[in-house]
DNA sequence: CATGAATGAGGCTTCATTCAT
DNA sequence: CATGAATGAAGCCTCATTCAT
């Protein structure tokens, strides 16, 4: 996901490999230390020099954005893939759990950027992010509406509320990370509020 | 709340005033800029010199802790004061909303510390925090159990789950901060899951 | 010459001493290595830590500006002090030589800033510089006009041309720095062009 | 003009073309941004990759040197071509103006090197430059002596002083770049000092 | 030969913390 | 006790130079 020059020739094999390593390293470091994790640490973890990190992501904000964009992409893929599932309620539940699982321990894009003192440059580059977010929301909305039509989810929640609830639930589950029973009960409350009773405890 | 010298002589009047100013300033700055707000900024806002900040809070972690301890204290006070309310369901709801309101936009203790790279020293000093947290949990548990006995809250959630839900809800409400309707609907889902139906939208 | 807070309380004794050291060190380093001389080198030479340099001059551009402002101040002082001299021609010559001597090897303000990639902030702070420059020009104009009225300097050069000539001469003398005779002859040409014959060779 | 491999096989056509492009690009970039203009920028402007720049000029200092050598060569050519002019005074004046014009806005070799932190290696490689400089000086000396014999230039300036004056004049004219009248008057003073009265203002 | 990715030293700047005044 | 100057590690970023492709 190189931020600039969107349509230059494809990266050399090694460059692509490095880019992936950097992204993984950044994800790991940001998850551990928050967005204040240092570029140096990321480079070290990715097995490259700092300069390489900056060649791929000219700014720390770019790197943060890339990490979150990648995460959004994964969620979008999941949503799309569940699009054709048989049981709409099951599909919706599945996605809800997946998001909660994924987001646990992780930070939100906005939060990360706030922590970085976003500047104009960063904002200018964000339409990639906005588009991605749009994609995700559309895919999720599909799942939501099918589940609502099937009577499995209450009708008065829209994509906005769902989004908020997903993020909040992820945060709630963080708090009980090492108590699977509490985790299940906590999740149960939310699902119940959505009329999605009988959720199985997340298996981990 | 300087962690060292647990029972030194009481502070001089001006010193006590300074300490209060610093705490307020720190709360304001951390809320605005996150835990990476600079000590200098806090000192400036408190109308003192950096040295003074460090005399009262030997470490930035100490200051962060003090801010959160103060916040916990306020919550505890609220819980205790609701202890004797007539309607247990109402009391519980009241507290729930108060917490959500308070936490919105604010950062969690853990989060703040993570952002600061907590070290062992910091952890060792946290028993003041742990004690306070204990107090809060007890007070809240009181509210919860009364509400449960009154049949207003489902019986399978304990203080652990409640804590998680409160934090998560605060985070969820952050996401819809400027849409009062969505905010109400989001809150409704959670309260509904807790069997606390019919909550009025938070008035702001 | 602290750039910000123009009228705060006077600096502590040690701070003032350090500021002077830093300024001297900066002057020396910039003279040797041009404006790309590193802050670290300046700090080392001044016997302080980098942080101290930045406390006094928040930006490298500020430091460069301070160095040049100090230089302009010295020139202005010289011009003012020659204001009351008996022989206007002698006074003018004296000043001319002083400037040439001083400027030799040195860089111009503009040049230095160009080399630094001046930004808006820097420009905003430059009125101090502009005022100083104005002072200098006025003082020099006084010297020039007296010398012209005394018939010692040709009438068709104004302050603008003089300024250009002074800077150019300084640069010319740089080229023959280690050949006093050539230096004298070079200077002679310019003075002669100004009708200021018979200049003694600069004594160094 | 790569300093190493003095007599290697002649360059391939494309290589020679690249070399020329790089040289032009370097000249343009250095003129715009000073010697701190980046190699990358030069490569971009030349339409090649950085690697190519370094193949032709193993060091940035080499590139700077090449740029200035090229400039000297042009001056030398000019001097040689004026060698046979009818009016020695006119020829000399012509050359003087040409140099001043050329040098205006541009940086001197020494200056550029200073800005780069020249090291011993660089100095060791400079004989190409020294030879060229020698050529130029000889050509100019020819012009000078003819003009002196024709009584158009004072006899006590030699090539050394002339060199200094030329550089200084270029610098002086820079200061009045956008005021043609002041420019003419400034130049007049110098030419007058050389006994080269009545010079026409440079036509630009 | 050209390309452009990788390297890593070095530059500027911030900021928690210490300590002389 | 308060002040605010000094310290210096650490962060982000640039760029000359090297080297695999």
- Give the helix proportion of chain A (percent range): 55-70%
Count of separate DSSP helical elements of chain A: 10
Mean pLDDT score of chain A: 79
CATH superfamily of the largest domain in chain A: Tetracycline Repressor, domain 2
Termini Cα gap of chain A: 31 Å
- For this structure, the quaternary state is homotetramer
CATH architecture of the largest domain in chain A: Orthogonal Bundle
The CATH topology of the largest domain in chain A comes to Tetracycline Repressor, domain 2
Question: Total domains of chain A, how many?
Answer: 2
CATH class of the largest domain in chain A: Mainly Alpha
Strand content of chain A: under 5%
Derived structural class of chain A: mainly alpha
Q: Low-confidence runs of chain A (pLDDT<50, min 5 residues)?
A: 1-7, 109-124, 198-204
Number of strands of chain A: 0
Evaluate the radius of gyration of chain A: 19 Å
Determine the most extensive contact between two protein chains.
Answer: A-B, 35 and 36 residues
Shape of chain A: globular
List the helices and strands of chain A in order. Answer: HHHHHHHHHH
Explained architecture:
Chain A is mainly α and 204 residues long. Chain A folds into 2 domains: 47 residues, Arc Repressor Mutant, subunit A; 135 residues, Tetracycline Repressor, domain 2, CATH 1.10.357.10. The first copy, chain A, is 69% helix and 0% strand. Chain A contains 10 helices and no strands. In chain A, helix 5 crosses helix 9. The longest helix of chain A is centred in the middle third of the chain and has 23 residues. The two termini of chain A are 31 Å apart. In chain A, 38% of the residues are buried. The N terminus and C terminus of chain A are likely disordered. Chains in contact: A-B, C-D. At the C-D interface, helix 9 and helix 10 of C face helix 6, helix 9 and helix 10 of D. Chain A binds a DNA duplex (21 and 21 nucleotides) through helix 1 and helix 3.
